[in-house]
Amino acid sequence: MTARPSTAAVRQIGPATGFFLVFFVVPLAILFAMSFWTQDGFERIPGFDLANYLKATTSRLYPAVLLRTILVGFVTAAIVVPVAYALAWLMRFTFERRGRLILGVVLISLFSGYLVRIYAWRTILGTEGLLNAALLQLGLISEPITALIFSPWAVMIVLVGLLLPLAVLPIWSAMTNVGRDHVEGARDLGATGLRLHRTIILPMVLPGVGTAFALSFVLAAGDFVVPTMVGGAQGGTMVGNLIANEFRGSGADWPMGAALAFVIMGLLVLVHLVTTRLLRVVTRW
Amino acid sequence: MRPARDDAGSAGGSRAGRIVAALFVAVVLLYLFAPVVVTVLFSLTTSPRLSLPIEGLTLDWYREAFANPIFTIALTNSLLLAAITALVSVGLGVPFAFGLLRLRGRTRGTLVTASLLPAAVPALVLGIALAVFFSGIGVAQGLPNAAIGHILVALPFVILTLNARLETFDLSCLEAARDLGASPWQTFRDITFPLIRPSVLGAALLAAALSLDEFVVTWFNVGNQQTLPVLIWGLLRRGIDPTVNALATVVLLSLTGLVLGAALIARRRA
After folding, report:
1. Nearest to residue B242, comparing CAs of B59, B67, B48?
2. B263 and A104: CB-CB below 8 Å?
3. How far apart are the first and last CA of chain B?
4. Chain B contacts of A108, Cβ < 8 Å?
């Protein structure tokens, strides 16, 4: 009886595991190996060379773009997570039954078309866009705000809208473990307002908050469509653009693109580790 | 229903607090849906330039979009990919979720986390890794490659939803069926499948929706084939084209239909 379930389990788990191994683990491993190759003209030369990584960290272009990517990703996540937290809290404890409906509506926006939402923001934020037109008509501004589009700000405005619904999910599911009695008990003991959240609620939902932060941070920093569409050539380029260009651009250099991909993923993991540590310290005060 | 208690854990508790809370939610929803409203609105207006006030309403952009021969190809390919993604990711995900049921807590937790990893890696990285892989084994870019990419994107979410729903599944009823002499196939057909059908259907619709909307992994692997998002991307790069809004609205309606369908099925079961 003990041996049979385990062989059955292996048989059932096998196909999906195999799929992940062949089409996820192996390709990533190959990509990693390729990041140590070099490229001469159109020829890729296998080998073990740190040149791409050196170029990524010391050239004039790459470090600035990497830093901007990290900053945009971090700020986006730092806006998305508190809003998602507030939303989850309100849905659970203020709107109660209607909370689930609100959650449903928020999640529907997740499936309203990735490209479409990005493109529509261009219509809203453009120099002749809806927002500028509205502000002009209201007399709040005398000429269009050009920084609304083709800037890191535009990239963050769009990313926040794309990632917020995704970040609500893990926080909401962590929040379902918080009971009304927890909240009332904490209130009776004198923890109210911000203190209630910092000392009682936040520690309880910390795993969810961590997941939400990591998801929004990684997905924001790894996006290349948003900076392509609303980032502009000047200040909005992110590392995703550079990586995409190395794979589909004219002067394609796969090894360099691969190295950039691993540099940004490494940096993301690093920043994430530091952030979760800090968050833990803050909630322990 | 319990009367609303003023101190019942709400943000402000008081009436004013509730109003502030409602306003906050309204602003967030406006932010999330503004792009959607803009797209649908401008797919129906006569003015080719996007501007207010709206001059008149028309269905011309839809007519023009559907008349584009590439649209039919892109739509067919997208639907094909969505169907394949739904079938394969459910075919792989259902046994996986059942296999998890037989495992102990720790192994199970590790496997669930591992299966979610592809969703935590940027689509860009998944896309280029697959492109490098296929080029390495000498497979030219095309729809099959894109299909693999779509399954890779959808499978973690299929496993996540199935795992959550199957947590309440009682394996002992399968043992009972076996003890009564049912073959594995009979057990599956008469007991297991009827019980899990709603969850499976919901997961399949979710997978189809993810596939229909997938652009990044597709773009790096599909070569010069078309899908709806690839077509939309091409039009966007060429400049202002109002048929984009019409195409986008078509995608939007299909996605909403699939997701609402999944939600309704999940609800009927509960």
Report:
1. B48
2. yes
3. 20
4. 256, 259-260
Contact B212, B262 (CB under 8 A): no
Probe site for chain A from B102, B115, B117, B217 (most A CB atoms < 10 A)? B102
Two structure tokens written together for B89: 């990711």
Structure tokens at B232: 């939309």
User: Has residue B142 got a pLDDT over 80?
Assistant: yes
Check whether A56 has a pLDDT greater than 60: yes
- Residue A60: DSSP 8-state: S
The per-residue pLDDT for range A145-173, each reduced to its tens digit, is 877 788 888 899 999 999 999 899 888 88
Domain A53-284 annotated CATH 1.10.3720.10 = yes
- Coarse DSSP helix, strand, coil percentages of chain A, rounded to the nearest 5 percent: 80, 0, 20
Reported as a single tens digit per residue, the pLDDT across B222-262 is 988 999 999 988 888 776 677 888 888 888 888 888 888 87
CA atoms within 13 A on the CB side of A4: 2
The interface predicted TM-score (ipTM) is 0.86
- One-letter identity of residue A69: T
Q: How many residues does chain A have?
A: 285
Tokens of B268: 């009927």
- Give the Cβ contact number of residue B226 at 10 Å: 20
Single out the residue of A272, A249, A246, A221 nearest to residue A55, CA to CA: A246
pLDDT tens string B9-36: 444 457 777 888 889 989 999 999 998 8
pLDDT range class, residue A197, cuts 50, 70, 90: confident
Mean pLDDT value across residues A51-66:
86
Cα separation, A24 vs A33, whole angstroms: 14
Per-residue model confidence (pLDDT) at position B54: 66
> Is B132 close to A30, i.e. CB distance below 8 A?
yes
Which amino acid type is present at position B46? T
**Please, which pLDDT band fits residue B5 given cuts at 50, 70 and 90?**
very low
Residue B196 has pLDDT above 50, yes or no: yes
Report whether CATH 1.10.3720.10 matches the domain B61-269.
Answer: yes
Name the DSSP class of A7.
H
Domain parsing of chain A, residue ranges: 53-284
Compute CA distances A229 → A128, A144, B62, whole Å: 16, 19, 24
Contact call for residues B248 and B231 (beta carbons, < 8 A): no
In this prediction, residues B199-206 reach a mean pLDDT of 86
Nearest to B103 among A9, A214, A240 (CB): A9
In chain A, where do the E strands start and end? 38-40, 43-45
Cα dihedral B247/B248/B249/B253 (nearest 10):
110
Provide the pLDDT for residue B269.
56
- Residues 66 through 125 of chain B touching chain A, CB cutoff 8 Å: 91-93, 95-96, 98-100, 102-103, 111, 114-115, 117-118, 120-125
